[in-house]
Structures are given as C-alpha cells and as structure tokens.
Amino acid sequence: MTTTWRLRFELSDSPGALARVTVRLAAADCNVLALHVIPVPGGVLDEIVVRAGEGVLPADLVDAVRSEGGKRVGITTADLKELVDEPTAALRAARIALADPSRTGEALRQVLAADSVTAGEAADGQVQLGEWAARRGWARFTEVELTRAQALLDLVDVPAPTMRATVLDDGAALVLRPGSASDEDLVSGLHSRCSMKTLFNRYHSGMRALPRRWVHRLLNPPRGTTVLAQGGDQVVALGQLIHTGTPECAEISLLVEDAWQRRGVGTALLSALAADARAAGFSELVAWCLPSESALVRTAGRAGLPATTRREDGLLRVSITPGATGVRARGAGVIAEKTR
Question: What mean pLDDT is predicted for residues 67-90?
Fold first, then answer.
C-alpha cells in the first residue's frame, strides 16, 4: 500500500543539494509528486510531496533527507487533492470562505496546511491570526504562510463567529453560542427540565439532577468545546465536540430538552459542531448511543451529514462525516452570525 507524504526541511545552500535528496528518495522507492521552495528570513525551506512505496515508513523518509544534510525536517500525510500550486490553493480557500463565511476557519486551515484552526485566543503551540488560533505540529509556520493567511482574512473581512441565530420551522428563534463558566445555572436548569429518559440516553446512567462538578466540566471541557442553544432566558440544548486521542477523530454529544425535541434544535447544533470540526481538521465525528436510539442518525440525515453505525461494547457507535453539507438542514436554518 502506498502513502503520500509532505516533507518540509532546510538544506544547506550548495549546488545539487536538493537533487541529491530526490535521488535518495527515489532509491527508497519514492516518487516525487511536487516540489515547492518557500522563502524564509535568511534562506529558504524546501517542501516536497512524495508517494512512498509499500513498506516505506515516515522515519525512512526523514532519515533519507537528513542523510543529505536536511535540517528541521517535518513530515505529515498529504492529500492528493492538495497537489496544486499555492496560488490556486489560496484562491480555492478564498472561494470557500467568501461563499460561506462560517467556513472561514476551514479555509484558513487549508491555506496554512494546519493541523487545526479554531476560534479564540491562541494557547501554547498556537499562532494568533485575528480572532483565530492555528496549530501545526509537523512544521513551524513561515512568515509567507502567515501573510497569505492574513490576506485571506482581509479579503473575507469577517471575524470568527461566536454566535449563530437559528430559526426553526415553527418560527421559534434560538441563538447558538459557546458555553462559559457563567452559564452554570442555565445548564443546571436545562438538566432539571429534562426527563430521566432524556438524561439516561445522554449519560447512560440514571439521574435526576446533575452534580455541580459535572456542570462545570460540561462548560469547561479539557480537550474540546461546548455549544449552547438558547431561547429567551433559557438554555434548551447543549452540544459538545471533544478531541479524542486520534488526530482525525472527535467525539460529539447532544442534549435537547424534551419540549424542544423534534423541532430541529439537534439538527442546528449538529451542523454547528460539524462546521467547527471541519475547521479543526477532523474527518470523523463519533457518538455513542444506546442500541435502541436512532435519533442522532436521523439528525445527521436532516443536516446532510453521512452517518454509519455499528455495535461496539454494547452501544451503538455512530460515525459521522463532517464534510460540507449537501442537503439544507430541515427544521432549522442559520440566518445570521454575530461576533464578540
């Protein structure tokens, strides 16, 4: 089985250095598909995309580059769809963001070849771009890349969305927004109005009230985000996107108050979480449901998100692809976005 890889490295400025790297890779049964030279202060970085033969490991490719004097070698998987010149890639990303501003984070991730782009303040290991935080572990961002990303933001001219207004089929209006520590009373109220069946379907355990420490953790997940659906002065639903140990996969969960079920609230929440997942670079969303529950699969269908299921460890594992929705969500539509 062949695998396509992107390598970025620094070579000494000597004649034939890059040619020797490509010869070394060819000897390791690798086919060079693309090559880019990236200017950086004091020199350049070389980036190549290779298709490795069967049995060739990433460490073999790194060793091949280092054996010819390569330094600061970074490697990540590459998608053949990304094998276009940088101006074309930037134009495609701009088209995505201009057509749908809610996908600006996804467009930024493509321009930067980032591991993730999320709304908010940059943490350790992230770079701040306006109201967006970008992370890339396989190689450091270059000034050229950051300038290109900022140009995209200047073109689109929309800040990171933090609130979305949604209107349901019955005319009810909701706001989808990030949760914060100040929402503990609202989230406790949501749980108090949910039936035991609804709580059991969400937490897979019997409870009448949610412990305060659980409420705090819901609003401050250590590896994810929480989105609240608010109508008037009440939070009527809650959705979470939690990073798992797998880079391409995140776990999701939804809780909708009984009186608001079957009205499109879950569809709106799932669509918002899928948009956040795309921007963060996830290709799969996973949820764990009781075997008798099929509500999430129906919700994914209404949101236009492909879903598959299988039984695992006594539960139903629902796998959802957070790609661009191909069907307009029935029962809810995002009509506006607000910012901080």
Answer: 79
